[in-house]
Automatic annotation (TrEMBL):
It comes from the Bacteria. This is Class I SAM-dependent methyltransferase. It comes from Flavobacterium sandaracinum.
């Protein structure tokens, strides 16, 4: 579904800031393949990710933060009735979150650097996804969870003509993401190892394509 969701949201106002198709593909795969029933997203934007989650046919509790007036004004329309298939909660700031919930999957796609809050909402098996480059936040996560397994993932595709980012980066590779696995168990270590190899091969391939 990630392709259809990307195409749908690419045509909407505010699309220049939505998650890349590659990131949406990874989010779909991660949610389907792992025991994920709760998601916290920093930076809902125009709603691409909760919409994608609502198509996955899984029981999911979703919390997202969004402070921008324009984004908040279009969310209800962009999400429509689809959102009724997940337990959707939007708040203007993480400071307004007063639940005791811990989340299986945390997506960072907005400004955020509060280590105590992150530790409060993460559990031992949480997966944390950082969309795009966000070098400062990657460094912040590395320091906050020093034992976690980290995979940077990159795409070999370039932005297409239909991409909302085409004008500014037409000859650039599609944005990647970084996945932080908090539990260094055997299963996670195996995935970490395989993904490390895939990324290093992709860096080499990028030099010849
Ligand atoms: C890159 S966009 C998110 C795109 C969105 N995930 C999508 O795929 O449609 C980042 C969003 O985070 C919001 N944001 C940034 N910092 C924030 C903060 N501290 N609290 C709440 N929202 C924030 C911005 O208003 C912006 O809409």
């Amino acid at each position: 579904m990630h392709k259809e969701v990307f195409q749908l949201f690419s045509k909407k106002e505010g699309a220049q800031h939505i998650a890349s198709e590659y990131a949406l593909m990874a989010i779909e795969k991660i949610v389907k393949q792992n025991n994920i029933h709760s998601v916290f997203e920093f930076g809902i934007g125009i709603g691409t990710i909760p919409y994608l989650l609502s198509t996955l046919n899984k029981r999911i509790t979703y919390y997202g933060t969004e402070e921008n007036e324009f984004c908040n004004s279009v969310l209800a329309e962009n999400l429509g009735q689809s959102i009724e298939s997940i337990n959707y909660n939007a708040i203007s700031s993480y400071l307004n979150f007063n639940g005791e919930n811990k989340f299986d999957f945390i997506i960072i796609d907005g400004l955020f650097d509060d280590a105590n809050f992150l530790k409060k909402i993460a559990h031992d098996n949480t997966l944390i996804f950082v969309e795009g480059d966000r070098e400062n936040q990657r460094e912040f996560l590395r320091k906050t969870f020093p034992k976690c397994l980290i995979n940077r993932s990159i795409s070999l595709n370039k932005n297409s003509k239909h991409s909302p980012y085409y004008d500014v980066s037409s000859n650039h590779f599609v944005g990647g993401y970084t996945l932080f696995r908090l539990n260094p168990n055997f299963r996670n270590k195996t995935s970490w190892f395989l993904e490390k190899i895939a990324t290093s091969l992709k860096y080499k391939l990028r030099m010849i394509i």
